Amino acid sequence: MRAKFEYYAPTSLDEACALLREHEGDAKLLAGGTALVMWLRMGLLSPGYVIDLENVPGLDGITYDPAGGLRIGAGVKHRDLELCPEVREHYPLLRETFYKVAQPRIRLMATVGGNLSHGDPMTDPGASFMALDAEVTLRSSRGERTLSVEEFFVDYYETALEPDEILTAIHVPPPAGRVWSHIKFTPRSEEDFATVGVAVTLAGENSRCDDVRIALNSVGPTIFRARAAEDALRGRDLSPARIEEAGAAAADASDPIEDVRGSSDYKRELTAVFVRRALEQAAARLG
Amino acid sequence: MKREMVLTVNGEEHDVEIEPNRLLLEALRDDVGLTGTKEGCSIGVCGACSVIVDGRLVSACLTLAAACEGKKIETIEGLAEDGELHPLQRAFVQYGGFQCGICTPGQIMAAKALLDHNPNPTTDEVKEWMSANLCRCTGYYKILESVMAVVEGKVDEGRRDEAVRQARIQSLYQSDTYKSDTSD
Ligand SMILES: Cc1cc2nc3c(=O)[nH]c(=O)nc-3n(C[C@H](O)[C@H](O)[C@H](O)COP(=O)(O)OP(=O)(O)OC[C@H]3O[C@@H](n4cnc5c(N)ncnc54)[C@H](O)[C@@H]3O)c2cc1C
Ligand code: FES
Ligand code: FES
Fold first, then answer.
1. Which of A67, A75, A85, A215 has a CA-to-CA distance to B9 between 20 and 30 Å?
2. Angle A264-284/A240-253 helices, nearest 10 degrees?
3. Domains along chain B?
4. pLDDT for residue A116 is more than 70
5. Mean pLDDT of B59-86
6. Exposed (0-12), middle (13-18) or buried (19+): which is A39, by Cβ within 10 Å?
7. What pLDDT was estimated at residue A218?
């Protein structure tokens, strides 16, 4: 049964925060609605109040400067991020990742903040934001705090957001000359959710790895960094054996569920394969 | 609690009294009485419910009607003018862009949203954009051909001139939708 709720469309961030505070625990924020409306409709959520963020100023806009990096308002649509010239030029990993989300109509509707706040481990952008060491800014009437994207994801559909908090922006540091790779494995159809998703950024020279970040989606209760795999490579030569070892370490760290996309064993095997391939692709781009 | 609101659909104002949990899809079909917009998957996948709100293509099945108050909603019923079909509608008729027709209002609204923003898309762009609308009948190429005929401004000529038509079909078969930055 679809629950009945009151609908609010506040016109300032303070007003949105106040409403969220007033109805704490009984209110849900609405951004693009692509996840929330579906969940409301299926009766998976039954809030008494829905607070639409569309008319809240300050949640839109993408700004880039070479020293500070990229600031993405939580209300920015996937499609606008994908088409943003600065993103294409300085953050090709983000362009690639957002291009691979669903299909154009969903990307026109869904927001970056909504994607992250949904806390769905199957979604793609979180892994790329982690590989880029991005942070999120959370705002409530109590104040503002900043968390790494890694800290933000807590469990299946659970994030660090307190019931009175709004995700306002995502901040990505300057790209700092790192190379990248991204693999979204979708054997059923291209616009499907990933069976395995891997995002890598890598700093180094020739085939030496100075630093690496490897983040995975769809193979655990949250999107996560494969830290043991990173440790196997940091400060080392990217030899085929090391890359293989990193793939195995990432597979060990994964905890995929069985679903229509395959058994957990199958997905664990795939994790090793795609982490290896993603590392090979990134390594091939090292100067 | 039910609320009174005005929905502006195809330039006409409709007074409706609806619950805030009402979907735009339900409001259009059941409250406004415009049943051209179809329901397929109900979860944003198929595109049958595609409509344009304030210039943006959306799935009406994932949109709250309450969030559309004061906005400009365009549906398939608004395309024909004075009994004359819109070029996209004419093209779909001429090139067999539909069979059963359930996906067609969504296909045409999606194509309209694209052409409103970009009147001269490439074949690749049309393919990528239209990938968001599923069709179980046509095999897609006739839909793409219909849209390309409008892009080329040759809805009627193309049908008579086999060379124009063959060139269009060739370009559709040669184009590759997926443009990944990984492959460069
Ligand atoms: C057909 C389909 C295919 C999809 N395929 C993919 C895919 O391939 N890859 C992928 O990554 N994703 C995919 N998605 C998921 C999609 O990315 C999410 O549904 C979407 O990102 C959610 O964004 P939204 O703006 O619509 O959020 P909403 O649905 O409005 O909100 C989602 C959740 O976040 C909360 N929220 C929203 N904004 C904020 C905020 N600023 N602060 C705090 N909380 C907030 C809401 O309360 C709600 O709980 C798909 C979805 C659909 C419908
Ligand atoms: S019915 Fe809305 S997208 Fe399928
Ligand atoms: S014409 Fe039948 S589904 Fe497209």
1. A75
2. 140
3. 3-78 (3.10.20.30), 87-172 (1.10.150.120)
4. yes
5. 97
6. middle
7. 98
B161 or A165, which is more confident: A165
Residue given tokens 């942070």 in the structure block: A135
- State the pLDDT at residue B1: 85
Task: Tell me the per-residue pLDDT of B139-173, one tens digit each, with 9 for 90 and over.
Answer: 999 999 999 999 999 888 767 778 888 888 888 88
Which residues have C-beta within 8 Å of that of residue A202, sequence separation ≥ 6? A178, A179, A180, A181, A209, A211, A212, A213, A279, A282, A283, A285, A286
Q: Does the pLDDT of residue B178 top 70, yes or no? A: no
Ligand 2 center to B28 CA (angstroms): 14
Check residues A232 and B155 and name the one with the higher pLDDT: A232
Looking at chain B, the whole-number percentage of residues with pLDDT higher than 70 is: 95
Reported confidence tier of residue B176, pLDDT bands at 50, 70, 90: low
Closest CA to A194 of A111, A284, A126: A126
Q: Is the CB of B24 under 6 A from ligand 2?
A: no
Task: With beta carbons less than 8 A apart as the criterion, state whether A219 and A255 touch.
Answer: yes
In chain A the domains, ranked by start, together with CATH numbers, are 6-52 (3.30.43.10), 62-172 (3.30.465.10), 180-284 (3.30.390.50)
- Residues of chain A found within 8 Å of residue B59, distances taken between Cβ atoms: 34, 105-106, 109
A51, amino acid identity: I
Classify B62 in phi/psi space as left (phi over 0), alpha (psi -120 to 50) or beta: alpha
